[in-house]
Structure prediction request, 208 residues.
Amino acid sequence: IDYGCRTSPKPIRWDYYNDERRKRLYTVYSMLTHLKQSYDVFRTSDYTLSLGGAMKRIHLNHPSGKVAVLGNFGVEANDIDPHFQQGGRWYEFFTKETLEVKDVNSPLRLKPGEYRLYSTIPFAVEGIMPADETFHIYPNPAHNTVTITAAAAISELTFFDLTGRKVISETPGQTSVTIHTDHLSQGIYVVRVRADGKTMSKRVQVIN
Prediction:
């Protein structure tokens, strides 16, 4: 922030583009901006908001189609009533999956931090990455225990402190594992997971 002075131009952090997580965030924002600019439903005045609590919902209505945005802002998996505006086929933007809705109030299970964007018409946007292509850690910050889940069985699970020292190493062989962190010092740790031949990493804060 004090590069030159607080109000001087700052150098562009091009290295951020090589960070997989930052690049994905950039891509998601780019695609959502494209949606807003390309589809009238995102400029509608006919909408409803349900933003109380951890499970949040936005409905957009327009003659060209309908949109339901669902999000879990909590640290635990939970069910949400999508309250879809109509039955029939809905398209999920990030995963490209379709959902046949018979009961508009049938609950959907959302992982911690998971969000979905359903629409009654498919949006033609190329290049978007899947919403869930890594693994999940919750709660984060962690107190005494932390749970790690992945789409495939976790063959290796390793915790490193910020000096690079290995502090936890396990081979769970399952898609979900709970780790006790009460013996760790408070601070930030890098969690590295190997599943389905892929190695992925995230950070977790321990606040024992």
Q: What stands out?
A: Residues 20-38 form the longest helix (19 residues). The chain is about 10% helix and 45% strand.
